[in-house]
Amino acid sequence: MIEKFKLKDGRIVIIKRLFKSDYENNNNYEFVHNWLRKVNKFLAKDFNEEDIEKDKKELYQILSNDKVSIFIGALDDKKIIGSASLMINPFNEKESHVGTWGIAIHPNFQNHGLGVKLLILLENIAKEMGIKKLEAEYYDGNKSAEILYLEKMKYTVEGRKKYTGLLNDGIYTDKILIGKIIDKTLEL
After folding, report:
1. Is the pTM of this model over 0.85?
2. CATH number of the domain at 2-132, out of 3.40.50.880, 2.40.50.1020, 3.40.630.30, 3.10.180.10?
3. In the chain, fewer beta carbons within 10 Å around the N or the C end?
């Protein structure tokens, strides 16, 4: 899967499935780790400069098992400027129909339609894999996530974990749990 996508401002990016080689080419992992530090406030993981090698090793381990994780991304001039991941838990038979996802987009490419595009593609991949429900979470106060997930992508709030997140500014916040049935036969 490789396709061109026109952002709202007219820029064209390439969307494709991401593999370890995509992160190794053009120092992409270092580039991504750098911009993730800029959007770090509401991410579940902190991206600190001193942890770059440890973080790279963790990502490469996840990428090595395409039966449990799939990454799609957007590239601008061969640089990864956005990614969405789909994780499947094949070890829990009772929840094998559920996928979880995460998304991050470079600050210069946010609010241009890329988040919606990546999540639609991820939902389509999940459907092809037989996934019936998708889940995600975000920290309360992340207005961009709230607009994208709830308003644009029509996920519903399924729960709230009080004071679960400690943001970079020292503020405790709630984790919002969201979900969406993507197999309409479950809604009967």
Report:
1. yes
2. 3.40.630.30
3. C
